[in-house]
Amino acid sequence: MDWQVPLADLDMGKAERKAVLDVLCSRWLSMGGMTERFERAFAEMVGVKHAIAVSNATVALHLAVLALGIGEGDEVILPSLTFVATANAIKYTSARPVFVDVTSEGNFNLAPWEIERAINRRTRAIMVMHYGGYLCDMPEIRRIAGEHNLFVIEDAAHAPASSLDDRMAGAWGDMGCFSFFANKNLATGEGGMVTTDRDDLAEKVRLMRSHGMTTLTWDRHKGHAHSYDVVALGYNYRIDEMRSALGLVQMEKLYLNNALRRDITRAYQDGLKGVEGISIPFEDHPGISAAHLFPILLDENMDRGAFMEAMKSRRIQTSIHYPPIHQFTYYRGQMGEIHLPLTESIGAREVTLPLFSKMTEAQVGLVVEGVKEAVRVRGSAGAGERG
Ligand SMILES: Cc1ncc(COP(=O)(O)O)c(C=O)c1O
Question: 7 CA distance to ligand 1 centroid (A)?
Fold first, then answer.
């Protein structure tokens, strides 16, 4: 499809091409000096002691749950309005994901009071997801976690360089997990990062990232070791040097690109103010958001399929974040029927509009006009229908 306004686009240029070519010329392709530099820079940005680069955020989350010693018989509280990987990472360890509802139609993040209601003697951790880059109510969630002696894991896939009260996403929980997937604010194709302040957790993640081996090929190359022991059942969750080099260049652009995303978010908020048939979440959200997504919520009487078709006819790409996890066939089979009224209502009515740092004013204008028209058409023809 030849989109006039795609949902997302990358900021990739000469610097990224050079960084990758330099790695190829260096003839050291996986987990070496570039990865060490990427990890140091990322830890510094987040303001934590350790950052451990991995293959993607899904395995980052898996390692976080494992490192905290969570497994069979344990429960982890999380939202259902997130990408399925958030829950899968818990299932991989045989722990039980416990889905709870979100805050409101204006805030798609986990509701602290729903977290409190779900806590029982099997609960070990709260896994938050900062929807669209807007931080969850972390002071309150940390208070709850402290009171009940629970770990906090942040799925910060949407939130590199997001902050609240001058504290970055990834520095609020015991562990933070980031994604560098191809459509993320900091993109390396595939890639992820685990952040933590705790030495013991960092050591476990490093070990499990590479087969539970006590030394790496890189250590042996540097002459620091001749052999290795295997002290745990680990995985190959490593990152390669091309991606780490890309990540370093993308990190340099992150603050500016996030600021551009926030400018576009404000332009959308202004352009769509007062438009009948929709509402806009996170309008007065505290903190600084990475503005990864721009979600809108259609009124109950709107037909979402028709709305998205109308946008498509103008060659404007839209998407849905997210179909609730507890409604997927696999999870229904695993957990039985659960009812999360707000999550289900938002999951049925949310539409994500295009948002990327290089979006032009003209493109924002096209989307705003597209929404106004799509809403007008549906307002007259679709009243009473449900998407
Ligand atoms: C909220 C959330 N969590 C986890 C992931 C998984 O990230 P990855 O694709 O890097 O495994 C994503 C990716 O889209 C995501 O959006």
Answer: 16
- Closest Cα partner for 54 from 85, 80, 24, 83? 85
pTM of the shown model? 0.96
Q: Which amino acid is at 56?
A: N
**Residue where the block lists tokens 């949310």:** 350
**Does residue 86 line the site of ligand 1, with CB under 6 A?**
yes
Catalytic residues: 184
Strands (E), the chain: 50-54, 75-79, 96-100, 102-104, 107-110, 123-129, 151-155, 163-164, 167-168, 175-179, 192-196, 278-279, 294-298, 350-353
Tell how far the Cα of 257 is from the centroid of ligand 1, in angstroms: 20
* pLDDT classification of 222: cutoffs 50, 70, 90: confident
Mean pLDDT of 142-153: 98
Residue from 83, 88, 153, 319 to probe ligand 1 pocket by mutation (most atoms less than 8 Å from CB): 83
66-114 tens-digit pLDDT: 999 999 999 999 999 999 999 999 999 999 999 999 999 999 999 999 9
